[in-house]
Design a protein that fits this description.
The protein has a single domain (8-229), classed as Aldolase class I (TIM Barrel, Alpha-Beta Barrel), CATH 3.20.20.70. The protein is built from ten helices and ten strands. The chain has helices at residues 26-39, 49-56, 82-91, 110-118, 131-140, 165-173, 187-195, 205-208, 210-218, 222-229; strands spanning 11-14, 43-47, 63-66, 68-70, 76-78, 95-99, 124-127, 144-146, 178-180, 200-203. It is globular, with a radius of gyration of 17 Å. It has an eight-stranded parallel barrel, surrounded by seven helices. Strand 4 (68-70) and strand 5 (76-78) form a beta hairpin. By secondary structure, it is an alpha/beta fold.
Length: 230
């Protein structure tokens, strides 16, 4: 099993691509992950067993694996089943991330799923949205807690586009190994997360998503801005 202390104080790069992106290809994701590791990333966070397997062939750095699944109502869940977790482990993930929020969910309850994933022999990163869900995840055996879902569920009101540094601080003060993730866009925000007590920090879109970054910069073109408001 991975020694999680090697992640402490490190930058984890989330190498993922949305469904409509030409980057959504195992070989391309693996190249992006390798570039991040060469640049100094302590680990990478990868969506889907196929992409994890491709990345594992190119990097020896730790991989946090997850499987994003849409349910019948189009709600998105992170690694909602034991089969998903097992596939990620078999593909080479060192840590499995899963949704540990308090939301009602289809399929296996987190109280059953989280301990079962740990029995596969991999640590769990519990993706949560508030302090209560983070504390419960630790009681269920999660080694790491990520603020990944803060601002994306009805349980959390931080929807202004800023990272939830206060949640990072609250979890750290509760002696939880918290990984700050979500809407981190600059080195200053990375520093703020560590100042708040983060164990590690995940950055994704602002490093690896050129479509989103292009749209962000396009918003600064006056002619386009005026056209959108007229």
């Amino acid at each position: 099993m991975i020694d999680l202390s090697q992640l402490r104080g490190g930058l984890i790069v989330s190498c993922q691509a949305p469904d409509d992106s030409p980057l959504r290809d195992p070989g391309i994701i693996a190249a992006i992950a390798e570039a991040a590791v060469i640049a100094g990333a302590a680990a990478v966070r990868i969506n889907s067993a196929a992409h994890v397997a491709a990345v594992r062939q190119r990097v020896t750095a730790p991989i946090i694996g997850l499987e994003k699944i849409l349910d019948q109502s189009s709600a998105q869940w992170i690694t909602p089943s034991l089969d998903d977790a097992r596939a990620l482990r078999d593909a080479g993930a060192d840590v499995v991330a899963l949704d540990a929020t308090l939301r009602e969910r289809p399929g296996t309850a987190v109280e059953v799923l989280l301990p079962a994933v740990r029995e596969l022999g991999v640590p769990v990163m519990a993706d949560i949205d508030n302090l209560e869900s983070g504390q419960r995840a630790v009681l269920l055996g999660a080694e790491l807690v990520g603020t990944t879902l803060s601002g994306y569920t009805s349980a959390q009101q931080n929807r202004l586009g800023d990272p939830d540094i206060e949640l990072v601080r609250a979890l750290a003060e509760a002696s939880i190994a918290v990984i700050a993730e979500g809407r981190i866009k600059s080195p200053a925000e990375v520093a703020a997360a560590f100042d708040a007590g983060a164990f590690a920090v995940v950055v994704g879109t602002s490093i690896t998503e050129p479509m989103a970054l292009t749209r962000r910069f396009l918003a600064g073109i006056p002619t386009l801005t005026k056209g959108a408001s007229s």
